[in-house]
Amino acid sequence: MAGDIDQDALAAEWGMALEEQGSSGSDAEQGWESVGEDGMAHVSAGSKGGAERILNQEEIDNLLGFSIEDLALSDNGGIRAIIDSAMVAYERLPMLDIVFDRLVRLLTTSLRNFTSDNVEVSLDRIHAVRFADYLNSIPLPAILSIFKAEEWDNFGIATVDSSLIYSIIDVLLGGRRGVTAIRVEGRPYTTIEMGLVKRMIEVILADAEAAFRPISPVTFKIDRLETNPRFAAISRPNNAAILVRFRIDMEERGGSIEMLLPYATLEPIRDRLMQTFVGEKLGRDPVWEGHLATEIFQARTHVEAVLYENKFPLRKLMNLKVGDTLVLDMKPDALVKVRCGDETLTEGRMGRVGDKVAIRIQKPLRRGRTTMTQFEQISSGGQEQ
């Protein structure tokens, strides 16, 4: 019995010694990483020497590709890039950049008149998001204004964050300049606060109408105000939308306002928004137009006189023999068609001038519908001469 006990104790002692040797060797060869009670990542350099390395929260977020502020609204990296690799690449609308640049200039003047204060408006960014991702990323508390584009028969969202809400209220109610607005968290917005924010949104939407007017006349009308994103669903969760963020600064106060326009809302004017510039028409060059008109009028073309035209079955043509007669279903005084290629220019009567066959024009020439005004003027001037 004593021998069995001694063997068990000796085996246990050897096992512990081997474990200590293996753990010390692995720690000596490479560093180890652990997470402490404070939630920070602690990285040790090992036995070769080196200070303890602690990763802060920002470094951890960058490593994993997550960002609390812009979780679904920015270009992600790391693990987040792998997760969002299935995101659809939405088409870019160049004209929107011009529209919202114009809106920034208009808002700078309108908000200065509205607040009687020095207001600076800047365009933060324009990018495409999924509708559900945007609703989940809205920092609360906030006021969401659902507005309708009357001519486009669809809706959009204008979101005002809490910083801008309290700053506008403080400015409009006579707050002192240079003092940061005091936030009162944990309570709903009052009727007066909602009314003041609604007036500011009306000013913004009026400028948005003026910014879109060169492309397409539109009327933005506020439908309702919401404080819960769940009640602001105007599109399907997976639908694409354009998100525009504006930064509004009033000395040391300010905030941001976001305008969300689903692609379904912009669909009626999508062709115009895909243009590089308004109208996408180059400036007229009268010298080039005159030279082109001169060369066109001097160009030589082949004109054919068609006496008769009909379709016959191939079997009938194959059965023709010498001496067969083809009956042409036309009268002696029928008009002859004058063609240039496949286009019929005019009609006339066939006759003879000396020893040559001639065509007398009976109808005016058919002008193309796309003839430029400059060409018509040159043509009329040439005929008068």
From TrEMBL:
Main localization of the protein described in the UniProt heading: membrane
Pfam family, one: FliM
Domain of life, per lineage: Bacteria
Record's bilayer topology term: Peripheral membrane protein
Organism: Phreatobacter cathodiphilus
Protein family: Belongs to the FliM family.
Gene Ontology annotations of biological process type: bacterial-type flagellum-dependent swarming motility; positive chemotaxis
PANTHER family: FLAGELLAR MOTOR SWITCH PROTEIN FLIM (PTHR30034:SF3)
Function per UniProt: FliM is one of three proteins (FliG, FliN, FliM) that forms the rotor-mounted switch complex (C ring), located at the base of the basal body. This complex interacts with the CheY and CheZ chemotaxis proteins, in addition to contacting components of the motor that determine the direction of flagellar rotation.
Sequence ranges assigned to domain Flagellar motor switch protein FliN-like C-terminal in this UniProt record: 295-364
Name recorded for this polypeptide: Flagellar motor switch protein FliM
Entry's localization field: Cell inner membrane; Bacterial flagellum basal body
Swiss-Prot/TrEMBL keywords: Bacterial flagellum, Cell inner membrane, Cell membrane, Cell projection, Chemotaxis, Cilium, Flagellar rotation, Flagellum, Membrane
GO molecular function: cytoskeletal motor activity
Assigned GO CC terms: bacterial-type flagellum basal body; plasma membrane
